[in-house]
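User: Hey, quick favor. My workstation is busy. Could you predict this chain's structure for me?
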Amino acid sequence: MDQDLTTLAQLQAGKLIGATRLKLSCGLTEFPLDILDLADTLEILDLTGNRLTSLPPDFARLRKLKIAFFSDNAFTQFPAVLGQCPALEMIGFKACQIETIPDCALPPLTRWLILTNNQITALPRSIGTCTRMQKLMLAGNRLTHLPQELANCQNLELLRISANELVEVPAWLLSMPRLSWLALSGNPATQHGQVVADLPEVPWTDLQVAEVLGQGASGIISKAQWKTPDAVTKPVAVKVFKGEVTSDGVPEDEMQACMAAGAHPHLVQVLGKISQHPAQKQGLVLELIPAGYRNLGLTPSFESCTRDVYPAGTVFPLREVISIASGIASVAAHLHARGILHGDLYAHNTLVNETGHALFSDFGAATIYDKTKPELAAALERMEVRAFGYLLEDLLDHLALEEVAHETVSSLRGLQQACLQPQVLQRPDFAALVTQLTAITQIAGIGTPQV
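Assistant: No problem, here it is.
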């Protein structure tokens, strides 16, 4: 806070002229008009965590502004003036109190829009003019339907509409050519009385929780020792859910999907669900991932928007590419056979070891869907196949240089293209992908992939 107050003082003293970035979180109740003096240079503005309710009428003077964050403020209406910002393409209003979005309030160049955890009941029809939209985050609102005009956003690749009040999944949504990552749990449209296999309950007192291993949007994962009913002490991982709406949905739906997923060689095994937590929080007991596994990729950047990024110098041997691709195709086939859309099939949710064995994780965006509706099931699976196509593309783009000319690579590129084709139902399903990957591997004589 002290640093932000210092920055505010510098802004008001005219010492930030020429700045391209500005971040202020110091309890602001009014927009500091001095920010408009940065109109010629400001590209990124972060006013998260204040108490703002409006923006000034001449906000659009910030003609070079590309990214603007206003999350955790007190807006009740999306500011209409943003629609006049000529360069604005990434906007965040997470966890405000927004109820309405005026028509034409969305900037025409919008690529990435975050409106998670508000009280929005309807999207403006003018959203259809945002044809560059790639990433749309709407979880935790009060939407009862999506406007038909959203179908004009043909570049949309990632959509989060979990924890709303949608009564149906529109047919046009299932045929969008580039949509690859979809989360829609927690809506009336996806409630169909799913029966989830019971897991053994693990009393919190039987767990000796140690150091934190990692933290995501939905919960905290820690290492622990579990005193099992057989009086054996077993090292495990414990995930305790925060109980808050995340960008993907609500933790309860993630927990249900984790339990419904069952066992598979490329999934982290769920051993039980936590009971008697002192703060009444929900949680899972998971198999501890062996040492030596690492994240396959890094989460998307501002620039890449929907695509994972990789450290400079990342190289994958062909054998590893085939092993990872085969493993992920196999586990995805397993999930869809159980009516589970993962919704976040990405390299950054994939762990691999030095042999190329892959472990798939993070069910925060998962949806359990109705397998008795064949059209819905076929479309959702092939939507996720497109995400797999992107993963395969990433792996092949980072292939070891000396193996690029291997005869197998052209077959793998053909598979990638089949997964990415715009006609949703013409893509292969995951079972077909597993079969084709096995055949490619055997013909090339590289060895049997780990499936």
